[in-house]
Amino acid sequence: MIGDWEIQKMADEIVRLKAKSVAIQFPDGLRKRMVDVVLELKGKVDANIYLWGDPCYGACDIADAPVDLIFHLGHAPLGHIESKNVVYMELQKELPDTDLLERAIPSLGEKTGLISSVQYVPELLRVRQSLTAKGVEAVIGEGDSRLSYPGQVLGCNFSSARSVANDVDSFLYLGGGNFHPIGVALATGKKVVVLDPERDEVRDIDDAVDEMKRLRFAAMEIARPAETFGIIVSMKVGQNRLELANSLEELLREKGKRSVTILLDYVTPENLLGLDVDALVSTACPRVAVDEQARFDKPILTPTELRILLGDMEWDDYTLDEILGSDSFNSA
Ligand code: SF4
């Protein structure tokens, strides 16, 4: 949600920073509100206000716009990305006043880790207090430098969960969707319970993990006979992993396969049309291969999946791909 308070805050920042030109980046879920927000803000300040029209799924993607100020909505900063003229507005929310937590408690162990999307990070401390009062010990792990808050997880970084995984029986995730909790379940090997305020639902993630692994195994089997691979590298500031692509090219060469590294901004089927490769490997946002396989006419693997396919890792060690901060205890 973006309301009057947030729009007034943007107007105040524009005045305070004396910005004359401003671009606003919206998360995909707010597309319907974009035009209204820009028009409202135009009515409040004497500055040129522009709507950034490209899709934006994370703080890995900061608009490269020739303006004095960028408002980046719905995401927290990625610690290692320099963003001098960017103001982040995380659009955080409160949990609704329901019995969701009561419903989640029976599924948790004696000691649980608390994790959330950035929207519900402020609720982690309150949930910890409530759980403690009910006899459940709850801990909130510190993540690496890619994360802004303890307990926060991204679709590409589960380091806050991994940091406490050995101390807990389960995790409780506050937020919508299954991608983040699936990632935590695979990264930690622990049970993950989802407290989903958007669907007013508490759910176990086990079936979703199995389904996702089944689909990824199928994509790997389709890629198995491939001789020529396209390695995708995104040029977005927080997704660019050229060194990883170089190491994958080397691995493929050692295994007698051919590969070409493809640099692009957006990983879409249209941008890869006509490329004469048998399979793709994405080093860009880890969600692309997993969430968007159905849009591509070729198998698109994560770096981990390629390593398993080439016999460099075991399927039993399968995890989702992560982009770690430079200080991560797992960043070797
Ligand atoms: S790389 Fe993907 S999961 Fe990570 S912040 Fe960017 S959009 Fe989100």
Molecular structure report:
The protein has helices spanning about 5-15, 35-40, 100-105, 125-135, 160, 180-190, 205-225, 240-255, 285-290, 305-310; strands spanning about 20-25, 50, 70-75, 85-90, 110-115, 135-140, 170-175, 190-195, 200-205, 230-235, 260-265, 280, 300. With about 325 residues, the chain is an alpha/beta fold. The strands form 3 sheets. A 5-stranded mixed β-sheet has the order 6-5-7-8-9, sandwiched between helices. A 4-stranded parallel β-sheet has the order 2-1-3-4, with helices on one face. The mean pLDDT is about 95. It has 3 domains: about 5-90, Diphthamide synthesis DPH1/DPH2 domain 1 (Rossmann fold); about 100-205, Rossmann fold (3-Layer(aba) Sandwich); about 215-315, Rossmann fold. It is built from 10 helices and 13 strands. The longest helix is centred in the middle third of the chain and has 18 residues, at about 205-225. The radius of gyration is 21 Å and the shape is globular. About 30% of the residues lie in helices and about 20% in strands. Iron/sulfur cluster (SF4) binds near residues 58, 60, 156, 238 and 323.
What's this entry about, in short?
The chain is an alpha/beta fold. The chain folds into three domains: 4-89, Rossmann fold, CATH 3.40.50.11840; 100-204, 3-Layer(aba) Sandwich (Rossmann fold); 213-317, 3-Layer(aba) Sandwich (Rossmann fold), CATH 3.40.50.11860.
Strand order of the largest sheet: 6-5-7-8-9
Task: Give the terminus-to-terminus CA distance.
Answer: 38 Å
Please state the overall shape, judged from the principal axes of the Cα atoms: globular
> At CATH's second level, what is the architecture of the largest domain?
3-Layer(aba) Sandwich
